[in-house]
Amino acid sequence: MKCLLTADLHYALPQLDWVRAVAGRFDLVVLAGDLLDLASLVEDDIQTLVVMKYLQRISAESRLLVSSGNHDCIERSAGNEAVATWLAAAREQGVLVDGDAFQQDGVLFTICPWWDGPETAGALAGLLERDAAREKRRWIWVYHAPPDQTRVSWTGKGYFGDGLLLDHARRYAPDLVLGGHVHQAPFRAGGGWVDRRDRTWFFNAGRQIGPEPAFVVLDLEAWNATWISQAGRAFLDLSAPWDPEHPPPTE
Fold this sequence. Notes:
The chain is an alpha/beta fold. It has a single domain (2-237), classed as 4-Layer Sandwich (Purple Acid Phosphatase, chain A, domain 2), CATH 3.60.21.10. Helices cover 20% and strands 25% of the residues. The strands form three sheets. The protein has a six-stranded mixed β-sheet, with helices on one face. A six-stranded mixed β-sheet has the order 6-7-8-9-11-10. A two-stranded antiparallel ribbon has the order 4-5. A hairpin with a 4-residue loop joins strand 12 (215-219) and strand 13 (224-229). Helix 1 runs parallel beside helix 2.
């Protein structure tokens, strides 16, 4: 099973066009949050309408998994926390979104929503507890934010990750966590597109300008990952020992 991971497209329509064009080459496409852009001059309702059209077209080419990011949370919950309830409408097109789980060949994917406070953090914890009880050979989370104090959350000046994620990962030990959020991490000294804690691999493709997004290709049978961006290409054998002092070189 081959999986395409990208995130933080932020209403970049040429990059969404690119995802649509290549989606058929993959068994799964993962968009790990921040499809919208809160700083855009385009109104939120227009952005959601356009993005929904793209999700429909991409899902016609490949199985599509989409999690919310902070830029996607344009509504408020009953507890006054930011949420992305608009994304649920994509289920009608067969898209798997926040709160959904998908299993294929013994691999379970859990799609995690962005959390903004105790209400949404509690819902996330309940989602992980639910799927922890399911039988699976491997467990993969789609989770927009990277874990704090890791290479994939390094901005070049400081860490900007999720303070709860490492605790969740230590408790449940997923195999992979597919995210984004910190755009600069793969392109800064001390940062990276991949990191590992205990048995869990964390990925962040980063964000770049131009018609093609930065992305990661995961081969879940060969158990390897390749990062491709304007900065170059890097390859990682996920079954090999991890040396945090010598991450995979970019060529």
